[in-house]
Each structure stands twice: as C-alpha cells, then as structure tokens.
Amino acid sequence: MGQSLSGRNLLCLLDFSSAEIEHLLNLATDFKRLKRSGVPHRYLEGKNIVLLFEKTSTRTRCAFEVGAMDLGMGVTYLEPGSSQMGKKESIEDTARVLGRMYDGIEYRGFEHENVVELARCAGVPVWNGLTNDFHPTQALADIMTMREEFGNDLSGRKLTYVGMEAGNTGHSLMIICAKLGIDFCVCGPAVDGAFEPMCNPDVFAACCEIAKKTGAHISLTTDIDEGMRDADAVYTDVWVGMGQSDELWGNRVKIMTPYRVTADMMSKANPKAIFMHCLPSFHDTNTTIGAEIAQKYGVAEMEVTDEVFESSQSRVFQEAENRMHTIKAVMYATLK
Ligand code: CP
Questions:
Q1: How far is the CA of 241 from the CAs of 21, 50, 110, 167, in angstroms?
Q2: Which of the following is catalytic: 278, 283, 313, 325?
Q3: Which of 6, 204, 260, 320 is spaced 20 to 30 Å from 314 by Cα?
C-alpha cells in the first residue's frame, strides 16, 4: 500500500488522494476483521486523545471512544458547553493547550473554519467529527459499507443522495465518490428560484474537476426517476439538520414529502440497490421530535418510510458499525 498518513489532519476529504482514501478503507476492513475475531490491536498504547463536541452525538462520539480504547489509547470527552473554548478562550489558545496534552483532537461543531483553525494551531492531528460543511468520517463509513456490498472496486457504481441540499454529509459523499470514480447524484427539490437542489458550488466544481480524471459522473436533479435510474445505493438524511432552526420543519415537510424514500422510490433504483442513512432517522414516531412533527403536520414518517428503513435493502446499522472501524483506521494512520 505504501501510504503514510502519519501526522496528517482529517478535515475534508478533498485533502486526500484516491490512493490515501483506499488505504484508509483497507485499514478499516483489516480492523473490522481483527475486532470480529477478537484479536487485540492496542497499537497506540500510551497515547491520549480528546473529543471536543459542540453538538450532541451518539455514533461519532462512541466510534472515537471505542476505537481509541481498542487501540489502547486514553480518551477525554468534552461535552457541548463544558470547555472554555469560545466563551472564555479562543480556538487558537484552546488548540495550543490541548495539543500539549493530547496526541490527537476530534472536533464536532459549527463553522468549518473552527476545525481548520484548531488544526493550524494544535501541532497534533485534528479530525473533523462534523462541521456545517463536511462530515468526512461518515463518508468513509458509507463507502466501506458499499464496498462490503459490491466489492472494493466501486468505479461505475452510482450513489444517489436524496435530500433538500447536499449538506455536510452530501458534500463529503460527493467528494469521496468523485475521488473513487463512483457516480454521485443529489436528488431533491429546487427552491428559491433555483433549477436544481442546493449544493456548495465550489465543492461541486472541485468534484466535477476530479471526476474528469476518475470517470465519475456528478449530477444534481429534481427528477426522481432520473435520480433513481441505475442507483446502487439510495441515501437520505434528516430534513432539518443539527444546528438548523426548528422553524424550518413546516416548510421542509411540505417541500420534502415528495422526496421521502419509499418502497416505490426504491423500486425505481437497481433491483439490488441498498438503502443508506447516516442516522439518526425519523422513520417513525418513537422519538420526541418524530412525535411532535407527527402531531403538528400529520406525518408519521419523514425522510424514509419505516418499511424501507426496516427492509432487507437497508444497511443503516452496518453503516453505523463501520463508523467505528473507519474512525479507528483514521486515528491509527495519522497517529502511528
Ligand atoms: N451520523 C452521525 O454523525 O451520528 P451522530 O450524530 O450520532 O454522531
């Protein structure tokens, strides 16, 4: 493989070559095998990491914690609002303090510039656990899941992201697909006078440029038939993301209901297509928000029906598990 990622940050997958991404995915597969067969892999004993969260999390936090502990590392979790960062201490000073105590820093927050600033000042690897613009560790887990389904060479496969906009997860998926020669389509409504679903134009342009070399086809469409045509993976996410205003719900329910992933929508994709979701998901009313939205707007399922979520095509919990294997690979590759 011959890839050394020692000392590198993981802020955005645009910073990584196709070979480096493949290397991380191969490492994750190796780690999954070791974990499944009960083989200890405490390769980073004596190191310590800190997890800096400005938003809530289940998967990302647990993946970093269990991944770090499996590698023999110590972990400190700083929950939202529990550190001095922001209110009493600048990101620069926080980075300089944490970088003297820890071997690596994970950050989940709002502005992408914050994680860039942390990385600039910390002197140790910084990993992006989700910002407003990107969610790179999620995309790695998603592609690992597709490799498990369709084989390691995914070139020519198609992933369709159904959503209001590409968003942080959609942008990271667009990048990883462009880099690996996977066709990527955002399928959703056009709003505010646009003709296509929203997406960061700079990220889209960069991905189209990369795609010229890898053979990927990157597209945006409002047309469900077009989005589903030849799709090997149908992916969706919640209609109102973390940090977005609850006031958006009413409008989102109206605009996004035609784009709910249903069995009928899945039937337009390849017969062997899988359903993917980064989670958490509003596929029923068994959550506080799900119940509130059901009562307020009369929709018991939002971005995906319970039928599709629970179907044999669904790979959502495999994806969630793969967060841990891929994050472990990122920590190992950058800290060893
Ligand atoms: N998909 C994801 O990032 O999950 P969490 O918000 O639970 O970390």
A1: 26, 25, 11, 9
A2: 278
A3: 204
Q: Of how many residues is the chain composed?
A: 336
> Could you give the dihedral angle defined by the CA atoms of residues 241, 245, 247 and 248, in that order, rounded to the nearest 10 degrees?
-40
Residue having the nearest C-alpha atom to atom 3 of ligand 1: 60
From the CB of 59, is ligand 1 less than 6 Å away? Answer: yes
Peptide bond preceding 280: is omega within 30 degrees of 0, i.e. cis?
Answer: yes
Give the distance (Å) from ligand 1 centre to CA of residue 215.
31
Report the predicted TM-score, pTM, of the whole model to 2 decimal places.
Answer: 0.97
Active-site residue 135, yes or no?
yes
For the chain, 336 residues long, give each residue's pLDDT as a single digit of tens: 468 999 999 999 999 999 999 999 999 999 999 999 999 999 999 999 999 999 999 999 999 999 999 999 999 999 999 999 988 999 999 999 999 999 999 999 999 999 999 999 999 999 999 999 999 999 999 999 999 999 999 999 999 999 988 899 999 999 999 999 999 999 999 988 898 999 999 999 999 999 999 999 999 999 999 999 999 999 999 999 888 899 999 999 999 999 999 999 999 999 999 999 999 999 999 999 999 999 999 999 999 999 999 999 999 999 999 999 999 999 999 999
